[in-house]
Design brief:
elongated, single chain, about 475 residues, 7-stranded antiparallel β-sheet, 7 helices, alpha+beta
Length: about 475
Amino acid sequence: MTDFITCDLISKPPSDDSEETPNTAGSREMDCDQPIFTVLNGNSVKQSETKPGDRTMSCAIGATSPAATTSDTESGISSGECELCVEHECELDWFCATEQKVICRHCVVVGSCQAHTVTPLASRVTAVRNQLVDVCEKIQLQAQRIERFINQTLTAKEQSLQSAASRAREQVLAQVSAARETLEEEEQRLLEEVQREEERVEQCLLTQRAHWSQAVASLSQTRSNLVHTLTHLPDAQLANCVQELAEKVEETEGVGEPCDTDKLNMNPGCSDSKLLKGLWASALLLGPKTYGSVYLKFDERTVSPLLSLSDDLCTLTFLPKKTRESPCYDPARFDCWPNALGSPSMSSGTHSWVIDVGQSGAFKVGVCYASLERKASGNESRLGYNAQSWVLSHYDGDYSFFHAGKKVPLLVVKRPKRIGTLLDWLSQTLLFYEPDSCAVLHSVTHEFSAPLLLACAIGDRSITILH
């Protein structure tokens, strides 16, 4: 038979409140004269008599008392054994929030947790249980939202995906079809134009060939007649044929001299197309295979004394007269015009670069041969006014293209802050465009005979090579 030891802790009842708080418990001294331990043997357990209203906490070692089981059930602890305080051997029915542990009431009154924040274990368990309930409710609501997202949103998205993809495919096919149709029509038009131009030149060549062949035959006949007259006519008759000779000479001179004209050459403009040129430029600039240029910068040796060059060799600034200095002599430097050339040179492949012109009211951007004159004050070193340079010019609000002194006015709707240049060596094409919209400002096809350099001139503010 097992012996049970019952520990009775008897405290005085609270004066008013039905629930004891740690403060009231701590302000009341324990009555040490009360009997604390009673030893019982056998199956009979003699309980200590207590006065009505007294609180009794019973802890059974080796078995669980009904009171302890009831208390654990109400507080949320369903342990089959009663846990005791190691220090006071009393039931752990309080919770210390300061040390985050379970304690007994003696720890609250006289133990290490007198000044700590404590709550009844049942209250603490209730609070934790409520918190767990809130968390469970939140998880349940979150799970419901996820299920609703899966069942409603994702399902609707899956249903609309096919129609959206179908519309996108139709749009792509429609745009490509329209572009293809337009290109085919433009191709047909240009090929017909080239054919007409070829036939025109061929007809001119045939006409010229027939005309000059007839002229040669006529001259040969006239010459033969004159030779016959010279060799066979008696002197008396020869002396009287001056008038006839004059008529033959006049007839010969009337044949004229052959000359080469533009009519005998095919017009290169017959294959020009703004649509085709724009699409070509867009394909090069925006297509999957984009083209760039080597790291362009201004050659310090070429910069005119009218300009200043930034430390990174990318920005040119027009200088007022007061701030100009006379640099040391260099055969590569422009002395009279506010010009500067870039490096390195370009002689193959496809290149594109952008110049930030900002608010400059006077500038030129383009390309030139390295052989461009540097020291002269005339047109031979002025960009766009000789056969060695091709530039887009902006001055006094007007945009123009210059080459060999010929001016081509350009219609620019919106003043660009950046000017792009595209050089395709294979097709011998130089093209100026507006970078934001890729709108072509001007293009020219020329048989370039030498490597080209970036060429710029500025008469107001600054311009910068962008990388």
